[in-house]
Amino acid sequence: MFVLEICEPGACFAGRMRCLAALARWEELSDLCKEYWTPADAVTRLEIAPMAANAAWNMGEWDQMAEYVSRLDDGDETKLRTAGNNASSGDGSSNGTFYRAVLSVRRGKYDEAREYVERARKCLATELAALVSVLH
């Protein structure tokens, strides 16, 4: 006999978000992100922020994108990475720096965008090195 376990309402939303992002269904993803963003805890926000930022970018929702991006790591290695530090969440990825570069270009702050692009390149180099070391 098989027992089917149903997720509590809202418990499977991150998986739904990943599927919607993979399918490039930006409007649905954006709506779902808006629904779950406010009640989400800091850890959950960090998990969904890259998908939410991507959806907001594709929908042209710049203020919403800025809110999501504010939760991501800004690539500044000089900052102490703690859970309570919103500017540098320590997610260890290039997402935050890349999305900040996009927002800076949108705002016409090209020097700032250049700095974020450089940070993103450094983060990507680190991520790539880690992947290569795992493969060998």
From TrEMBL:
GO cellular component: cytoplasm; nucleus; TORC1 complex; TORC2 complex
Pfam family membership, one: FAT
Alphabetized UniProt keyword annotations: Kinase, Transferase
Gene Ontology MF terms: protein serine/threonine kinase activity
Transferase keyword on record: yes
Limits of the PIK-related kinase FAT domain: 49-134
GO BP, one annotated term: negative regulation of macroautophagy
Transport listed as a keyword: no
PANTHER family: ATAXIA TELANGIECTASIA MUTATED ATM -RELATED, SERINE_THREONINE-PROTEIN KINASE MTOR
Protein name (Swiss-Prot/TrEMBL): Serine/threonine-protein kinase TOR-like
Organism: Trifolium medium
